[in-house]
Amino acid sequence: MSVKHVVLGTGAIGRAVMEELLKRGESVRMVNRSGKMDEVPAGVEVIASDLYDPANVREVTRGAEVVYQASQPRYNQWPEKFPLLQRSIIDGLTGSNAKLVIVENLYMYGDTDGKPLTEETPYQAHTRKGRARAEISRAAFNAHKEGRVSVTSARGGNFFGPWGTDSTMGARAFYPLLRGKPAELIGRTDLPHTHTYVSDFGRALVILGERTEADGQAWHVPNDQPTLTQGELVRMFAEEAGVESKISSMGKLMMTIGGLFIPEAKETVEMMYEFDKPFIVDSSNFEKTFGMKATPMREAMQETVYWYKRSSPADKNHMELEHG
């Protein structure tokens, strides 16, 4: 059975896309490795597939009008596996009528020394994962230019919100606060740092899937203004949750030591530049073109607190889909 919307990946952003589509009365197919997902709403089909095989991609997206690419390899396998995964998805969609809407982050831009990021910022990645991001983004938009598949993408900052545990402003920040312990952050906590509300990420992706003027370009997801610091976000969460605001933060040295034991911490070290200087994303192009404004931060944080209070830290299904 074919469906109009197929979401590859069942993590926080994939789920946000699903929820936005359901609000619009659409049926949705979700794809991950296991074929299982927590809290599956009515109108949603969840199936298992290995997306490293283009034949599988063709099968699970057959008849789709829009395919949202929200899947990714394990964080410590990006340089080796992400190009393979994205190439398989593009090959699988080539020749179909589906539009490919890709979830991206901001790694391809590299260190801008505190200057705000726009869609015109050149790719100057100096990290392994940043170069991988640049490679797969260029390949996707080259496929668009070649007429193989219609492509657009949404780029967001470090996200937060429901299901967004696998983020710097996620489980390690918010669950400790609810237990009366310090939020565990990284880098400077007193500098402006753009954080993207996961529901806004999902809404932006759906808008890009609907609008033809989005095609062939990358767009920055709208973020609420002014840009807050990590410390201000934590304090806002604590206020809404009715708990004391406590913060601890690890610098590059401590993250390096932690990386000796935790692969994800090791991979985070090269990205510490994002947390040592102001990290600000300009999303005005999306806002002017599509008329979307970000959810006010206070409202977004209220929703985040509600979700964290009702979820379990032991739940293992809150992470982005890993096609390892």
Question: What sort of overall outline do the alpha carbons produce when their principal axes are compared?
Answer: globular
Strand line-up in the sheet with most strands: 3-2-1-4-5-6-10
Described by strand count, sense and barrel closure, the largest sheet is: 7 strands, parallel
Element-by-element helix/strand order? EHEEHEHEHEEHEEHEHEHHHH
Please tell me how large the radius of gyration is: 19 Å
* C-alpha end-to-end distance: 27 Å
Average pLDDT, all residues: 93
Give me the count of strands.
11
- Uncertain spans, ≥5 residues at pLDDT below 50? 315-324
Look at the helices and sheets and give the structural class.
Answer: alpha/beta
Number of helices: 11
- Work out the helicity level: 25-40%
Strand content: 5-15%
Topology:
Blueprint: E1 5-8, H1 12-23, E2 28-32, E3 44-48, H2 54-60, E4 66-69, H3 78-93, E5 99-104, H4 128-145, E6 150-155, E7 158-160, H5 171-178, E8 183-186, E9 195-197, H6 198-210, E10 218-220, H7 230-241, E11 247-250, H8 252-258, H9 263-269, H10 284-290, H11 297-310
Helix pairs in contact: 1-6, 2-3, 3-4, 5-7, 7-11, 8-9
